[in-house]
Amino acid sequence: MVSRINVIVLIIALLSVTTIQGQTKQKKMKKETTTTTTTTTTTTTTNPLLCDIETGMCETTADAGQDTKFDANLSDSKKVKLVYFTDPICSSCWGIEPQLRKLKLEYGDHIEIEYRMGGLLPDWSYNSGGIGKPSDVAGHWDEVSVHYDMPIDGDLWLEDPLDSSYPPSIAFKAAEMQSEEKAHLFMREMRELVFLKKKNIAKWEHMATAAKTVGLDVEQLKVDFDGKAKDLFQEDLKIARDYGVRGFPTVYVIDDAGNKDIVYGAKPYAFYEMAILKVNSNIQKSEYSKKWEDLFAIYPTLTAKEFSVLSGTPRTDSEDVLNDLTAKGKLEKLTTKNGSMWTLIKS
Prior knowledge:
Layout: H1 2-25, E1 33-35, E2 40-42, E3 58-59, E4 80-86, H2 91-95, H3 97-107, E5 111-117, H4 135-148, H5 156-159, H6 166-178, H7 180-195, H8 204-213, H9 218-225, H10 228-242, E6 247-248, E7 250-255, E8 260-264, H11 269-279, H12 292-298, E9 301-303, H13 304-311, H14 315-327, E10 331-336, E11 339-344
Parallel strand pairs: 4-5
Antiparallel strand pairs: 1-2, 3-6, 4-7, 7-8, 9-11, 10-11
Helix pairs in contact: 1-11, 3-13, 6-7, 6-9, 6-10, 7-8, 13-14
């Protein structure tokens, strides 16, 4: 097992070097300033909507508590729980979708991912870090899209901006009341709507569309959204404060004996894998089919980055493979100004 962990450490080192080299070829986003089409605004790293590319973290402005303990409420059926603090509009969280999807494929028999909402954007009554209006975020999202190689269209903030990320967060808690599995699908659907389709997911009509797509009872969702889900959301916010969560994504990795490791920010896949093995070195990864049809059967929508990570296809070739399948009528392609997503066409 020691040799196995050493190999993973080596992988982490190589990935870190690759990431640094790749960033020199991209347009590097400065932490000090963000530029819109009309103004240049001075910022700090404390604004939650300006995710720090170097750390991969969307930091909150609220005072965080002390990271002293965490009651995981582990189920007996899983050996390791990943407590994932996130937000529906967190761009760095969208950036780790490939990693999370691969973790589910390789370690799904041994891990349970528990989503906790963090409350990234309460409202626009504050002016933190130079961000005082939605249009200030547009250019930042475009740059983050390039960095994570995941399609994000920042024009949402110019065309139909959100007033708050609280409504979709509450809707997620309402979805969990029906089905944890469908709630996870619901979160993915909302993220596709906001990041690729420029839909304001704080509006009920778009939340309802996402719910219907994944098979949730929309009427019951509305009842719970207006009722108990609000309290469940406040409970998530309290947990985040109590345990020192300062930004998203933050992933606590905990075993049934209380051993814990934490991954802060968007990190390469090997960091999450290493955290799981550090907590429980006896876990064995599962092999899975990397055929395109099997991957799309599990995940009906994939970006080029996701397909590359999951299939092992070189990133330079992944779009060619997906475009060829589109030409053959197997997939449908959604193109945005910052990348594409492919959807399985059901026969």
